[in-house]
Structure formats: C-alpha cells, structure tokens
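ok here's the first one, seq then struct tokens
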Amino acid sequence: MGLYGNWIQRWELELATKDTNRIVRPFEWGLDWLDGVHRNGNPARDLSDFVESNLADSERFYSYTTPSDFRLTRNELTFTSPVSTPYPSNNTAYGDFFPVAKDRDRAVLVLPQWNSDINGHVGLCKLLNRFGVTALRMSMSYHDRRMPPELTRADYHMSSNLGRTISAMRQSVIDARCCLDWLQAQGYKKLAILGTSLGSCVAFVTAAHDLRIQAGVFNHISTYVSDVVWTGISTRHVKEGLGSNVSRDDLKKYWSVISPAPYLTRMASREMNFLLIWARYDTTFLPEYSRQVLDQFRKLKLKHKVFELPCAHYTTGKFPFNLIDGLAMCRYLRRHL
C-alpha cells in the first residue's frame, strides 16, 4: 500500500473511532415494520418471501401518494411522509432549499451520509449554487430533525433490526421522490440526485424508480447494503448486533430490496448521466465492491463517468479531499444537467 496509503488508513481509523456513542443493539427480525408480510411461524422464511415478492414488483413497493401539505418557510421545506412510523418526529420530512434565482430550470436533490447532522452537505449545496445549480437537501428518515428523542445517532435507519432497516430505507426513497414532486411543482424541469455513502444507496434506488431524474451523482458506491455492513469499519457495531442469527448470504438476500444491485438493469434503457465516485483506500465501502459497480455499469453500457478519490471514507470530508470531491460533483452537474 505504501507510506501514503498507510497514512490515509491510520487517519481514517482515527476518524472512524472518534465517536463513542455507537450502541450494539439486539437482533430483531422486525416483521412488524413490514406491511403485507405473511407470518407463517418462520420469520426467516416470512422475510425471504416478503423480499422476493417486492423485488419482483419494486414499482409497487416504492410507490406512494404525493403529500398534500408541502410548506416552505424561510427555505425550510416540510411535508408529512407518506410512510407512517411510530415516531412522530420521523413522520415529518424536511428539506433545506438553496435556490439560484437566475436559473429556475434545473435542480438537484442532495442526500447526505448516514448520521449526518442538520449541517451535513450544506456547504456542498452552497457550492452547487456557485455553479448555478439549485439544491434541495433532504433529511433522511431518523436523521437530524427527524431523530426520535431517545437517539443520539440515526440507528433506526441502519441497524440489526432487519425489517426496520428495510422500512427506513423505503421511507427515505419515497420521501426523496416527494421532494422531486415539490421541485417539479416549482417549475424545475431538469432534475438530478446526489447522494453520499448511505445517501448514495438511497439516491440510486430512487433514481432507478423515478424517470424524472436525468443525472445521478453517487458519492461512494457499493452493490449491496449488506456488504458494507458486513465488512465496513463504520458498521462493526451493527454486524455485532446481528450475531449468529443470519449469515452474510442471508443478509444480502434480506436487504437486496433496498440495495442498488438488483436495480442496475432498470437503468439500461434510460437516457441518464451518472457520476460514480469511489475512494481508493476506503474501509467502509471497500474498493472491491465499488469496482463491482463499475464493472456492472460497463457491462450494461450505461452512460457514466468515474472519479477516484485518493483517500478513504471519513477522510473524504476533510480538506483537501472534501474540496476535490465537491468540485468534481459540481462540475459534473453543471455540465450534464
């Protein structure tokens, strides 16, 4: 790896272990979080059947009714999420609007990383404005303003509760589509989506199911959510919570319905531009899984560009890599949207 690579990974480990509030939560099948699941006394079989059915009809799984209560107050968008959960704070969706007055034609929906706070990607939205692109930054389910009071991290979006994780990812995808509804209603005709890390996975599934999206920027990429959880440095506590209740292959099957991989072929007939960003020394989205995405894009002959970051995952948010990353994304969207 060399001196530089070793230095990056030491820095990455330091950043990844800085937080001391990670909790190993107990394993749960979480079938009560899934509408339409048929209970036959075998939760593993029940979950498998649910996933298989919804993979076969993902259009229905990610369908929704557009909210009727969109409200913009001092550039803060709110609406009631079409997905109802037991947590009132999570049932209101939020977006922070960064308009460009001179251009009412194009806009990008921005989805920050897992556990981002209310300031996550605000700087990127302002940078997009400098490139002439309007931005709407969405808070994913259970994040910042949507976080239930008992949490200090967005644990309910990604955890060892299998069904709740599926529900949370589905909610974030549907809320993202609602944000696109609102942008379209404001007159924006050219729509793009930009997601980072977990936000990248949500952005990809959203783009796969929403034909209005003309460009996608996926900042850190992997084929399956389960691979990231099983091997990534950021999710060791989630894997520990899974224990011996599920195998790696089982988890891939259960969470396939919320992963990018099954939906790649949906992009084959789309006139859409993609920017795929991966980090050479990533220990959260391992490079081998990022390369799998690149290989699939080439095989399917999808129109895309690749940008390789000379850092890892957490270090992407540090200077100068955050600037390098931000400029690459903004330049791409200015050119392709």
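and now the second one, same deal
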Amino acid sequence: MNDWIVLDRTDRVSTIRFNRPDKKNALTTDMYARTAEAMAKAEANPDIRAHLFFGVPGAFTAGNDIGDFLKVAKGGDHGEDVLHFLRGLVTAKKPIVAGVDGLAIGVGTTMLLHCDLVYATPRSLFKTPFLDLGLVPEAASSLIAPRLMGPQRAFELLCLGEGFDADRAREAGFVNAVVGEAELEAAAKTAAQKLAQKPPEALAAARALLRGDGADVLQRIEEERRLFAERLRSEEARAAFEGFMARG
C-alpha cells in the first residue's frame, strides 16, 4: 500500500493528509476510499473530537486524477469510493477543519464547502474547471455555493471556472482566515484542538443547528452524481481528458 494518505490521531484530532506531491495530490479512487474509511473510523471513535485535512506544500489537491476519469470515459466503472467520501463529509457529526496551501482544484475546492473552518495561505488557488472537462459541479456545490456566495459569484466559480485567490475565497465565505505558509499548520491544528476540547455533546448539537440535517445536500449530491456519470462518458469529456493527458 502506498503512503498517498497519511493519518495521524493526536490530541483527539484525526488528521488526514493528502500526500502525493509528484502529482500535486491528484486523488485516485483508492485515496478517496482510504479517506472515507479514515473519516468513518474517526466518527465511530469517542476519543476523536474533530477531523483535520492537509495537503503538502504548494498543493492541497489538484482534484480527481484525470487518468481515472479517462478510464471511465473508455467504459470503466466509476465506482462508489468518491460517493462514500462525499457522503462522509455531509454526514460527519464532528467538526471538519482544513488547512490549504497552494492548489485546491475541483473537489479540492468543493469539499471545503462542507468544512466548518478553513485556513489558507496567500498562494492558494481555488478553481473548479468542471465545465472545461465536459463535466458538471459535484459535492453539492451547485446547491451550497449559491447559498454561500450568491448565484453570480457561484456561477463565476463553478461555470466560468475562474480561479479565486485566498482573499477572494475569504470574501466569498469559504475561507475563514488567510495565514502565512509557515503559520498554516499551526493555525489549523490549534483550531481543531480547541474544538476537540469543547463539550462534545454541546458542540454536536450546536453544529447540527447551524448545518441542518443535510437531507437536501445529500439529495443534490445524488442528482449531481447522475449527471456527472453521464458526462464522464460523453464525447466532450473524453476529448477533454485525452487533451489533458496529452499535455501532461
């Protein structure tokens, strides 16, 4: 087994680190599966009080591995691993914190919409090039983003595909604070540890009040999933994937 997902459980915080730097942390189906499993185990462990996500210097994640997309476009099976990961983000009862440095592309941006606290460095770039790949938004971003930042700014992010820098992401409402590269991990860890020290039942109740039951979010994930699966096998998407792989 590779070390593309690095796990740590310290101070009641479950830390998941994407660790595939040579591919800018592009996520494979196995990485999604291992991340979903790690979250599920942390949710079931009463000693764990918070989830924390990191990438590597310069790359939170470049999004889904395009090679996996191309396999589906050529007739392969997309599998359930991505869906399990996305559902895990929605159904988590414990708070989720993320520290972002560098690229946060595709799901690297949309997963942050499910986090409770997000810290980012000035060199971070948030971009969702779904349409450029012949695809549609996912992770219920088509529902959450307009609610969070308004329909025009959400359209700019999800459809026009314009990248948001860290300050723009903070203005849009899905980044809490912009901190220096040297301070990022300490800032995110400190926040997660503070949450882990709070009364867990009260924290869970307060978080549930803020987030709601998530039924509409899960429903939108399913709707997006159907369209996404159709688009993965479209001629537009296959041409985009092959073009991307040729450039790489």
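notes on #2: The chain has eleven helices and ten strands. The longest strand covers residues 5-10.
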